[in-house]
Amino acid sequence: MDEIRLNSIYQKIAQTVIETIPEEWLKVFVYGEITEDVRTSFFYYYPDNNSIPTYSHDIPNLFGIDKEEYKKLWRQLLDGLEELWYEFKNNGQEPWTSITFIFDNKGDFKIDYDYEDLSDADDNERSIIWEHKYLGLIPKDEDDRLFLEEYLRSIEDKTE
Hints:
By secondary structure, the protein is an alpha+beta fold. It folds into two domains: 3-121, 2-Layer Sandwich (Murine Class I Major Histocompatibility Complex, H2-DB, Chain A, domain 1); 122-160, no CATH class. It contains five helices and five strands, in the order H-E-E-E-H-H-E-E-H-H. Helix 1 runs antiparallel to helix 3 and helix 4 crosses helix 5. The longest helix has 24 residues, at 67-90. This is Antitoxin YezG. Pfam families: YezG-like (PF04634).
């Protein structure tokens, strides 16, 4: 696979996210899911001088950003992730089902590719697990919190 092409796509994804964030930030965690039929993504970022992450889809309401402008950038993010997915597929690599792209304001980045079959998984449950794994977030909703506790117990049971 062409590393220059991959780096160009990574840059495009990061630049779209940076354009979406309306304040100074320290670190970003992007989640993306791409298949033949599905495209979804969201991200969290840590604002400068704040230890609580901001959820990307809250940006329009928190900052008075035009929802259509936000959607345009969000679709651009999805397009970049889809382009990356097809780059894998078209170059004989197994296409991933989800990706976590972590980068900071110094330019350091890390990418985790996941190849798990997501066809039977619930979107909300996947988000809960991802948010806990990468951000340490515990859901406020009691049912979601119980789901996470049960999930974490099942992981512990598998490792024992």
